[in-house]
Write a structure and sequence with these properties.
Length: 254
């Protein structure tokens, strides 16, 4: 926690131009995802994400921003499309460009998990304070990366402590109108074991491949993926490995 606080202080006190321009709402983004699990069961048939974000103000090369996402898990226990989880992701932070292709950010991320039309006896949520770096490496095979390290300031029921994440995305074939890509991500979490969640530290990971179409700030992706995830249920531990087949649509305007 001390290192994160020190990094926050360095970031906040980094020198900025004395006459820096201030810009309100310098960028906006929206995105959605829909994917089908394979194999399926009564709790996990579809997953959907929808969210948006905006840079609130930019001054001296630093942008304060906010994002909000809702993840919905859909099964068929009670009806054909039966939403059984709604998980909310909220994030505020400050990001700064590092050269032409890289960016660093201080982030505060909140996750709150809920059951839909089902009783939930305890709160399941956590707050994460951390740092994130991201960027692109142009070349014969363009590569995009994201990595983060954070520590929880609150963790209800699940006992999360430190989180380290990483993602790589490589464009392997580029055409006139579309491109093929492969990507992988990992999330390592340290946890405090409890009677309610009797498991230790864990590693989530995923890999995917697909096609991507770009038009200005608009992007469409179709993909096939494999995931290994922990804590897939809201109020009890659970692990599974499954395939997903789906699409993403996103827009980023600056």
């Amino acid at each position: 926690m001390t290192r994160i606080a020190a990094a926050t202080l360095v970031f906040a006190l980094a020198p900025t131009p004395a006459k820096a321009d201030t810009e309100l709402l310098p960028d906006v983004s929206v995105h959605l995802l829909a994917a089908h699990y394979a194999p399926v069961d009564t709790d996990f048939r579809w997953v959907g994400w929808i969210g948006a974000g905006a840079g609130l103000v930019r001054a001296g090369g630093v942008t304060a921003y906010f994002t909000a996402d809702v993840e919905t898990i859909i099964g068929n226990a009670r009806r054909t499309f039966d939403a059984n989880q709604a998980n909310y992701h909220l994030e505020v932070g400050a990001r700064r460009r590092l050269g032409e292709h890289h960016e660093a950010a201080i982030v505060f991320h909140h996750v709150s998990r809920h059951l839909v039309d089902r009783a939930k006896t305890e709160a399941v949520d956590w707050n994460m304070l951390g740092v994130r770096v991201s960027g692109q490496h142009p070349g014969r095979i363009p590569l995009a990366y994201t990595a983060s390290l954070g520590r929880t300031t609150l963790a209800s029921l699940v006992g999360y402590r430190w989180e380290a994440t990483g993602r790589l995305d490589a464009t392997v074939v580029t055409g006139e109108k579309a491109e093929a890509y492969v990507a992988g991500d990992a999330r390592y979490m340290t946890v405090q074991r409890s009677d309610a969640f009797p498991r230790g530290n864990f590693l989530d990971r995923a890999g995917e491949a697909g096609m991507r179409w770009r038009r200005g700030g608009r992007t469409l992706e179709t993909f096939a993926a494999w995931q290994h995830r922990n804590d897939v249920f809201v109020q009890r531990p659970g692990t599974w490995s499954r395939a997903l087949f789906g699409f993403r649509i996103s827009y980023s305007g600056r």
